[in-house]
Amino acid sequence: MDHARHFSAGKFTSKLKHISGVGQLVDQASTLYSLLRDPETPRWVKATCLGALGYLVLPTDAVADFVPVAGYLDDAGMISAAIAALGSQWKQQQAPAE
Questions:
Q1: Between helices 43-57 and 22-37, what is the axis angle to 10°?
Q2: Domain membership flag for residue 10
Q3: Tens digits of residue pLDDT in 33-81
């Protein structure tokens, strides 16, 4: 069966953007990554970012990623917990550049 006419990377990415919460999870993970890469970020913030991002990419965490929906709910929870713990650091990263 020819799957190429039904599936493409572009269609997949477009579909993911429309699934509730996935875009926000990606945006939040990207901000955590930015904090991690910033040389001015305090070490405790970097450690928090590293832990949350490591949990996100680990396929066999509390709920394996291959489990539909639930597999990413625990990842979203970990990212949210990291954001809550970072507080002011998170707000500084989200502020628009002048």
A1: 140
A2: no
A3: 888 899 988 999 999 999 998 888 887 777 776 777 777 788 888 888 9
The CB-side HSE value for 41 (13 A sphere, CA atoms) comes to: 24
* Structural domain includes residue 31: yes
Q: Give the domain range for residue 48.
A: 20-94
84: left (phi over 0), alpha (psi -120 to 50) or beta: alpha
Nearest-angstrom CA–CA distance, 60 and 9: 24
Distance between CA atoms of residues 84 and 37, nearest Å: 19
13 belongs to a structural domain: no
4 assigned to some structural domain: no
pTM for the whole thing?
Answer: 0.67
10 pLDDT higher than 90: no
Give the chain's domain count: 1
